[in-house]
Amino acid sequence: MENLADIAIERELSALCSRADADFAALAGLRKSERQAKWEYLWGSRSLRTRQMTVASGIGLAGMAIRHGSVCRIDSLSGLMKPADCPVMLAEHLKAAAAFALVATGGLNPEGILFIGRRTDKAFSDDEITAVAQLVAGIKKLYLL
């Protein structure tokens, strides 16, 4: 049985997807000793493989967000990274995605990662990224207790 914190986080992920017009959301915590993350919460997932994946610093979109400690995004039109370079995007058939590093207040290093994605070609705009970043603050409060 899920505890209340798990239910609250899953509700926040669902609400985040609704507000951001996203099809998928995932939340992972970093294992400090390994600098890797494991997906703990998934919303809108269509692949059993996603939960099994680990995220390493610098690998894929989520890994780049961890490495830089900021927001990273890609879509089918950007030239920096292709969806095929991101294991989560491949497994979930996403065409646009953004990853947000979760840094505790007063902290320097990310303690988690929030990943959102769309299965359509619609890229996340700057305004949408800003709006989602504000919503991420609520999830961060629940997750980084």
Automatic annotation (TrEMBL):
The protein's superkingdom reads Bacteria
Which InterPro entries does this entry report, sorted A to Z?
Answer: GAF-like_dom_sf (IPR029016)
What protein am I looking at?
Answer: GAF domain-containing protein
